[in-house]
Each structure stands twice: as C-alpha cells, then as structure tokens.
Design brief:
With 419 residues, this protein is α/β, with parallel strands linked by helices. The protein contains 15 helices and 16 strands. The chain has a domain of 264 residues: TIM Barrel (Alpha-Beta Barrel). The chain is elongated.
C-alpha cells in the first residue's frame, strides 16, 4: 500500500488520487499524521511543502481550494502543466479530469459548446495523448515503479447516434409533401428518385440496422443513442409517437442496447429530458440510464446536473466535435467532479476517442488519413489503458452521399481488436 501525506484531505485530492491509484488497482491511504507517515516503512509520497521522509511533490493549491478561479496554465518542457507557476502532476490531472478550463472560459461556439480552440489541449496539440494517464504513471513511477502493471486488453466499444432513423421511410403527410416540394424546387432529381424507390419498397439509405446489429453481436458493449425529441430545427427525427418507429426502436433494443440522445432543445431543461427519457423507456420497456447529448452539447456544470436530476448515471458525451482525442485526458471511465459543488458525483463519464463527423466534416481527412489517425489513437489507449469508444451514425455507415466509402473506416476500427 502507498501512504500519502497531505496537509489537508480534500474532496479534490481524494478524487485525483483515486484516479491515479484506485483505478489501477493500487491501494493507497491519505493521512495528515506526520508521525504515522514518517514511521511508515513501505512506499509513500509526501504531497506537501513540509520536509518529511519519502519522495516529495510540491503541491499546487488547486487541489486544496473550494472555489473556481481563472488560472495561468502553461505546458512545461516536461509535458506537465504549470498552474500559476507551479508544476505539479497531481494538480495537472485534476485540472484536465475535472474540465476546470470549461468553467472559467466564457467563449462558446454556435451550439453553445466549449470550443476546442480554447482548450489548453489545443495549444500544443496534446489532445491525442492520454495526458492524465501519462501523469498518473509518472507519479507511480516516482514512488515505486513496481506498482505499474501490465495493461489489460483494450475494450473496443462502438456507439451509434440515431439522429435520423430513416432518410425517407415513415416520413409521410405534410412532412413528406414539404420535403418533396423542396427537392422539386431545387431540381434534386436524385432525392426525388430515391424517395420514390423507397416508397415502392426499396431499402432506405439510412437503414443500416442490420449492419449495426451484426456489430452488436460481435461487440457486446455496443450502444445506440436514439433521438426522440419533438421536431425542431435541429431535432428532425421521426416522431416517437409513430407506432412503426416504435417498432424499429424496440426491435433494435432487443439486439443492441438503446439509450437516450437528449434533443438539441432539451439542453439543461430537466422537464424536456425527463419527457424524452420516459417516452423512450416506455418503448423499450425498461428504465434508461445512459445518454449522449445531441450535437455533443455539453455545458458544465448545467448539462451534467440536469442529467443527474433526470436519473441518468452514465454519459458518453465527453469528446470534442472539432478534433479527435481525449477531452478529459483519459480513456478510462471516471466519475464527474462537480467543481461548483466541490464534490464527486455518481455520474460516470465514458470518454470517446473520435466521431465520424470529426474526421470527415471538421478535420476534412481522407479515408486513409482517418485510418492512420484512428490507429494512432488506439495505440495510445493500448499503451496507457482505458476503453476505445468511438461514435458513428446510422446514416454515415451506408456509403451514401458524402459518406461513400466511409464504412471501411468503421470496419478498420473494429478490426483493431486483432492488432
């Protein structure tokens, strides 16, 4: 067991040391008892400014505070963070893991999201590194590298957001007529022909559910996140009241676990989230406890507090839309720390490594460039541990439109298990 001396035991310290040691199966204990620490004969760490036995890390004040303040944060030559002039691996982990910078940054993009460009991770292109895990291993190595264990096999976890169940199917009445008129006005003969073919029994371009079910059978951790919110400008799925739509959702849930994709309009609105959660729960016949935000609209702390209030205990939104990589500095499941309340919450965060749209639409990578990027991300997880979670959409894996050929990128990712 590792004994750690601190001048004061705080919730922030417990949270951070749990990540460093407990998540890696290493026993540790925090103490403020100098005599106990000095007399301890096994591995120990002095995380204080006091002169005691054992290896010492001079602590940054961030792990002892109960407020949120703007900090001067820079990368050092040793690839650690300097916070207000103090380089500290432990504080660096807490800063990234808690998403501290998202509380102090006032800038937001057009969707109300924290911009990747404002992140410390963007400054020196560090987002593709598992920074928190690297720092954790450095702390362990400084104490006693015999505690570092071989990594377990990486869990590959495919996830899919269902924003549009079908391109044409089940879209009837006024919605179909307006869409058809728009296509006629634009002279879009391709869509007019496709719609006619689907209405006459052809397969819908977004109907990739057989493919997804096959993936789910091979990867038991596969998850679906279904958009069921009321129709709005950026919430355009088929109504959850449509019985045929319900049948599709239920049939897929029998094969691959269906969870909620809270609508764009539901942002921080517990009443709307609860409504969508209840409607989806009724369709699948069980309680829903996992979610991922539509458009990755994550606003801290509001979004996570709303999800907790609505009864969710797991979220899969932790990642950037604009760039691949590790937003919270890890690929490991970790609990959300609410900085405003200064406490650990029961909400489990599942970070994802990349999204399909990030590769094709934000970063404008080719198919081959995307495969190379994914390989690099996977190697990072393989070396430092965690789950390799990635995000696709049913409409992007059917080799349709601008996504022609992109199913090969998903197949490439799935085959990483053999590397």
């Amino acid at each position: 067991m590792i004994l750690i001396y601190v001048s004061e035991i705080t919730s922030r310290l417990e949270y951070t040391f749990n990540f460093i040691f407990k998540l890696r199966g290493i026993e540790f204990e925090l103490t403020s008892d100098r005599l106990k620490f000095n007399s301890y004969s096994d591995s120990k760490l002095n995380y204080s400014s006091e002169q005691l036995d054992g290896f010492q890390i001079l602590p940054n004040s961030i792990c002892f505070e109960d407020t949120i303040e703007l900090k001067e944060v820079l990368w050092t030559k040793s690839s650690c963070l300097s916070i207000n002039g103090n380089e500290d691996y432990v504080a660096s982990i807490f800063y990234l893991l808690s998403r501290y910078e998202e509380y102090t940054c006032t800038k937001r993009d057009d969707h109300g999201r924290f911009p990747f460009s404002e992140s410390i991770l963007a400054q020196e292109n560090k987002v593709e590194r598992l920074n928190c895990d690297r720092w954790a291993e450095q702390v362990i190595r400084l104490i006693n590298d015999s505690y570092l264990k071989e990594k377990t096999e990486v869990s590959i976890i495919p996830t899919f957001d269902i924003d549009n169940t079908f391109a044409y199917k089940l879209k009837t009445g006024k919605r179909m007529i307006l869409s058809l008129l728009r296509d006629v006005f634009k002279g879009d003969k391709k869509r007019i022909r496709e719609r006619s073919e689907v209405l006459n029994g052809a397969k819908d371009p977004f109907d990739t559910y057989e493919y997804i079910a096959k993936i789910g059978a091979e990867f038991p951790g596969t998850l679906l996140f279904w958009l069921v919110g009321d129709r709005a400008k950026l919430d355009r799925n088929i109504s959850i009241q449509n019985k045929q739509h319900q049948a599709v959702i239920k049939s897929m849930d029998d094969l691959v676990e269906v969870n909620l994709h809270p609508s764009y309009a539901s942002q921080d609105n517990v009443e709307i989230i609860n409504k969508e959660k209840e409607e989806l729960s009724q369709v699948v016949g069980r309680e829903i406890h996992k979610s991922r935000q539509h458009f990755l609209r994550l606003k801290l702390p509001d979004t996570y507090r709303s999800l907790l209030a609505a009864g969710f205990n797991e979220d899969y939104t932790m990642g950037f839309a604009e760039h691949v990589g590790f937003r919270s500095g890890t690929a490991r499941v970790h609990f959300w720390f609410d900085l405003g309340l200064n406490e650990v919450t029961p909400l489990k965060i599942h970070p994802f490594a990349y999204m399909d749209g990030t590769l094709n639409e934000y970063m404008n990578l080719t198919i081959e460039q995307s495969k190379s990027q994914i390989s690099s991300l996977f190697k990072e997880v393989k070396e430092f541990g965690g789950d390799f979670i990635f995000l696709w959409h049913n409409e992007t894996i059917g080799d349709y439109g601008k996504w022609k050929g992109w199913s090969s990128v998903l197949d490439y990712t799935l085959n990483l298990k053999d590397e």
